[in-house]
Amino acid sequence: MVIRNAAILASQRCNLRREERRRKQQAVTKQDRRLGVAARPGVFDPQRCAIDPLHRHGANLTLRFVLWVTTAVFLRKHRTLGAVIKLHHLERSRSHRVLWLLEELGVPYEIVEYKRNHETLLAPASLTKVHPLGKSPVITDADTTVAESGAIIEYLAEHHGGANLVPAVGTAEHQRCRYFMHYAEGSLMPPLLIKLISSKIRSAKVPFFAKPITAKVADNLSASLVTGALIKHTAFLESELAQRQWMCGDHMTIADVQMSYPLEALASRSDAGTAMPNIVRVLNAMRARPAYQRAIERGGPIMID
Ligand SMILES: N[C@@H](CCC(=O)N[C@@H](CS)C(=O)NCC(=O)O)C(=O)O
Questions:
Q1: Which among 17, 96, 112, 185 has the fewest CB atoms less than 10 Å away?
Q2: Atom of ligand 1 nearest to the CA of 94
Q3: Mean pLDDT, rounded, for 98-103
Q4: pLDDT band at 42 (very low <50, low <70, confident <90, very high)
């Protein structure tokens, strides 16, 4: 009996609550009609929302949809925000320049590491999957692939906030910057590379009777293509750097990044016997940058021994 009465009471309470909700709902609908809210589905009305959770749900869906479309359009426009730059980094290579710049810019990036063949010092064939020449550095940024250090450095400065590392167009600094961006690979690297090749020829494992021949070839290469050239380059760079703090002027620029590798090579390979205090001063200023040191921590030593 007691249980039956309790059940009847509970059911009555339930009916009362339902009736109360219906009345509130009717009141809101009438007010909506007056205000024209019902005719505008998806318009968020906080008053109505307090009593009608479905209304809040509808408004949330609209908001979410608008947010989703805006984000998609934004990411499509700024593709690089959705992807991280990948640096295809060959150990002990010019790739250090790009690592240094990425660290200076503070942009997120990933390193894909490649090891040199011990005998030939060549890069593994897998690098040709990134760029047909199979050389490092090369970067991928979303669906853009950029090879050649100079081009990569300019690309990163242009697209990833390095405008302060490029001197203003029309100034003498800008002209010097352009010059050194090309000079590094076009003029200074070739004799330094021949110097490396000639030292590898000299130390190559050959039968003892062939040793004098390989030594002679190495000496001739050095004498004709390296020694004189490096004396000229050293004198030229010394006179340039005696006039300024960095490669182009009073501030570090992308030309310093590009020149860092040949300057390291010059410091470690040159036996031209010429003193180079200004080259060493600029090189030490580069090496002192925390970003330069972080690049070595992440990418390993710069030069081939
Ligand atoms: N001029 C190119 C040179 C690229 C280059 O020769 N990279 C060397 C490493 S320093 C390389 O990939 N060597 C391995 C190979 O040729 O297989 C640049 O500046 O990016």
A1: 17
A2: 10
A3: 98
A4: very low
Of the listed ranges 9-13, 147-151, 280-284, the one predicted with least confidence: 9-13
Encode the chain in three state secondary structure. CHHHHHHHHHHHHHHHHHHHHHHHHHHHHHHHHHHCCCCCCCCCCHHHHHHCHHHHHHHHHHHHHHHHHHHHHHHHHCHHHHCCEEEEEECCCCHHHHHHHHHHHCCCEEEEEECCCCCCCCCCHHHHHCCCCCCCCEEEECCEEEECHHHHHHHHHHHCCCHHHCCCCCCHHHHHHHHHHHHHHHHHHHHHHHHHHHHHHHCCCCCHHHHHHHHHHHHHHHHHHHHHHHHHHHHHHHHHHCCCCCCCCCCCCHHHHHHHHHHHHHHHHCCCCCCCHHHHHHHHHHHCCHHHHHHHHHHCCCCCC
Q: d(Cα 129, Cα 125) in Å, to the nearest integer?
A: 8
- Give the residue, by CA position, lying nearest to ligand 1 atom 9: 93
Q: How far is the CA of 177 from the centre of ligand 1 (A)?
A: 22
pLDDT score of 28 more than 80? no
Mean pLDDT of 271-281: 82
Distance, CA of 140 to CA of 37 (rounded, Å): 51
Q: How many Å lie between the centroid of ligand 1 and the Cα of residue 135? A: 5
pLDDT value of residue 181: 98
For residue 136, give the ligand 1 atom closest to its CA: 12
